[in-house]
C-alpha cells in the first residue's frame, strides 16, 4: 500500500455529482479512496460504489468500502473499512483473503489497534485528530497514538478527523502513513490542487 492521501467521499445523493467530485481528485493519485455515504439507502450505495469502483480502477487507485464488508464483497471492491459496529476484523480478513485491503477504526483506543493487528488488518486508523466539521462529536485522539503505532505495529497508520493542509505535516511527523480527509479536499476551492498538495507531503 502506498503512503499518502486517503480520500473519503462526501455524503452526496447525486451519483453524477459524486463521481465528478472523485474524478476531479484522482489525477492527484490518492493512495486509497473510501466510499462512505451516510445518507444513501442500500440500493443507492450499491450503485454509487459500483460506479466509483469502475472509475477508481481506471485510475489505478484502490477503492475501499466503509461500513459494509458485504457490499465490498458483492461488488468486488479492493477492500473494506470497519468501525466498531461493522463486524469482526478476523472474519472480514478471512472473507476478503490476503490480497484485498482491510482497515479498522481504532478511535483513541490503543487496544483496538493491537487487536486489529492480530486479526491481520492492513492498516489501523486513529481519530479524530482534530475537531471535525463532518463528525463534530467524534472523540479526540492524541498524536502519541500515531507515534506508538508507527513504532510498535508493523502496519501503515492512518489518521482521520479535522485534517487540513496546515495541520497535516504534524501528523506525518508523528508517524501517519495515510491522511484520511473529506472536507478539506472536497470543500476546497480547487480540490485537485488541494489533493496534490497532500500528495506532496509524502515525496
Ligand atoms: C480511514 C478511516 N478511519 C476511520 C473511519 C471511521 O470509521 P467508523 O468508525 O466506522 O465511522 P464512520 O466513518 O462509519 O462514520 C473511517 N471511515 N475511515
Ligand atoms: C468519518 C470520520 N471518522 C472519524 C473518526 O474519528 O473516527 S472523524 C471522521 C470525519 C472526517 O471528515 P473530515 O476530514 O471532514 O474531518
Ligand atoms: Mg463505519
Automatic annotation (TrEMBL):
InterPro entries: Aldolase_TIM (IPR013785), ThiamineP_synth_sf (IPR036206), ThiamineP_synth_TenI (IPR022998), TMP_synthase (IPR034291). 4-amino-2-methyl-5-(diphosphooxymethyl)pyrimidine binds at residues 34-38, 66, 105, 135. Transmembrane segments: none annotated. 2-[(2R,5Z)-2-carboxy-4-methylthiazol-5(2H)-ylidene]ethyl phosphate binds at residues 132-134, 162, 182-183. It comes from Zoogloea oryzae. It comes from the Bacteria. This is Thiamine-phosphate synthase. Its cofactor is Mg(2+).
